[in-house]
Amino acid sequence: MYLSRNWLEEYVKIPKTISSEELATRLSMHTVEVEKVEDQAKKFDNVVVGKILTVSPHPNSDRLQLAEVEVGTKKPLHIVCGAPNIASGQFVPVALIGAALPNGMVIIEREVRGEVSQGMLCAPDELGLGDDHNGILLLENRAKIGQSFAKYLGLSDVVLEVDNKSLSNRPDLWSHQGMAREIATFLRVKFSGYTANKKVVNKPTKSFAISVKNEAPELCRRYMAVGIENIVIAPSPQWLQQRLIAVGSRPINNVVDITNYVMFELGQPLHSFDQRKTNEIVVRRARASETLETLDGQQRALTIEMLVIADANKPVAVAGVMGGANTEIADDTTAIVFESANFDYVSVRKTSTALGLRTESSMRFEKGLDPLLAETALLRAVELILQLCPKAKVVTEVIDLHDANINEHKHVHFTLAWLNQFLGADIKASRILEILDSLGFEVKQKGEDLNVQIPSWRAVRDVSIKEDIAEEIARIHGYNAIQAALPEVAMVPAEVLPERQLEWQLKEWLAYGSALTEVYNYSFVGEEQLKKLFLDTSSCLRLVNPIASHQSLLRQSLAPGLIEAVKNNQPRYKEFGLFEIGSIYLDLPSVLPKDKEPGNTLPYQEKRLGIVLASDNPADLLRQAKGEIESVLRRLGLSAEWRPSELAVNWSEPQLSAELIVGGKAIGTVAQVSAKVAKSYGLKKSAAIVELSLQQLLAIAQKQGSLAYQPFDRFPPLVRDLAFVVNDAILYADIVKEIKNYNQLIKAVDLFDVFSGGKLGEGKKSLAFHVVYQAERTLTSEEVDKVQAGLLERLKERFDAQIRDF
User: Fold this and answer.
1) 556: how many CB neighbours lie within 10 A of its CB?
2) I need a surface site. Which of 99, 145, 310, 426 has the fewest CB within 10 A?
3) Which helix (H) or strand (E) holds 339?
4) Does the global pTM surpass 0.85?
5) Which fold has domain 411-456+464-479?
6) What is the CATH number of domain 718-803?
């Protein structure tokens, strides 16, 4: 966006001591980013007024022409030109050799199809005066030959170019009045804004009527229109043209120029219709297959999501974007209708994007304009047209269709203490009130409390909470004026999550201590996969929208994923070990926390640790798997007990599975994959899997407490090996419990061998134990023999256990 310093000074008296460069710096520090400062006259260095003396065809081109142009030098310039609208006697802008035009072109003497060109005749777009490139810009006959083009235009202004991105949330700054208010605030000088005069629309003559209907109030909060006749279409006065040229807009005629002038002055886009073609106005959504030729001459296909301004039959404008060619102001227009509206910013943005048509109007509407601004801008346009066309008359009442709450005001409450604490500064109350008042905020103070009314031009998409007010005060006061200081923050260690800490420890121990590789498997499994493991799928949770057909269920164990990992890696390694920490999901209710809605439940979810060892040699594989877990448990200060599993999983060998007992609780299992499952699943290696509950392990470890140094026993233990033959139905755990509880001298019991078959006979098994005896003195063999004899009697009596003697 371009800002004219001369235009700004109509609203705020900028001290002469402040250069344009300094003004740009202050704007950048307080409000918006200024990208460039440009003296208008310098922009047209080496561009002068010339008069075309003769025009002749180019001898070597059908499209080009040769012009002899007088520019005040001794000899006329010989210029090659391709524009179709040049003729002898015309006054035109001429770029001399060495000129650097606003569009970036540098003029040099060059040969064009065998003819030397000593300059260039300029089109409006080449001079930065609009987008028109259809022909050379023709000047009035009042021009003086050789006169500086900048002087001809009356340009004595400095233009500041503002980065549009820094205006994204500030619709009020898309105008000279809004920007002047900001400048007055940080320069601490008086601001003189435009005050609308409602008398200009009083007592209309009512020579014609306008009918307006708003069929899309959700997309148009306010629509205003007024009719004016006795219009004479003519060029705008020099002062108005100079204002438009300064901000990069090409003057067209007095009516169109007024709508553009008001937009750049106040920030509210306006549109003018030829009254002969617009007696009825309907604000509505476009209908399917409707089209409109816009003012740029392009035929636009409309969709039902777009808002249009229409007459009784057809669209005449794309709301907030561009008017239609079918109602544009013509040279013979004598009566017009001014439109001033407030369109939904989302709708305008979507329409502009869909049409690939971004205009000065759409850029302002899509920021979210103040609905109260529509009336001010309409009155300003009427005031200007009556000034430029003295015989013009307002002939209709002002039509004003709007929603009921456009005059509502938003308020924000806070205290001075909060504000200074939030900013980390000590700004005096008088300075705070001065800043807010200058920006247009109304403040009611009661002691430390402030009640701030947000001005309508800041309330749409900008200021809504007290932190926004704090930002306003900080930027005007000056960020550099606020002393930088590190916040005082208590150095509190982060909260420790015991479960996560346990996971990290397990990963470190298993990866570095046991040389196992961690794997991450999906939480999803498939029916075919589970069937190969002879597992029932009826109790599995089924996904409503699975990512793949083979991942339609939630896993109830880590084992399927670990077995799949063995299958995928078995061709690469002779033997290997993997581990995974992940969740399993059971179709059991797990009640949500109390702060959630009552009655809501989720499936039960549990974090588990799984380990799989794979090898070509099945011998001793199960013992190795048990050893990995026992190593982990020892690090936690826990010991493991194993007992035959009463409910063996379907994928395991029945005789090669056991439950893991820690702290008297069963928290997991160890099992070897059966040959039947291996064949079904395509496993070429033997595999043993351990799976245990991390939650239960954590609970036991926390109850156990931290590891602490334990001194060595002062007295040596006596270890006796006993092997019993018992019925196959008797559980190992029951025998261990009986042995441990028999006598206080028995400190530990460890199963080291299980044997069945052979001489034992059918239905029998042999269990071999290390039994450790120890006391706070040195035990004698006689004492241990006596206790052991009683133990054998007890086991015989309880389990019919016989000492194995072969």
Assistant:
1) 20
2) 426
3) strand 335-343
4) no
5) Phenylalanyl-tRNA Synthetase; Chain B, domain 1 (3.30.56)
6) 3.30.70.380
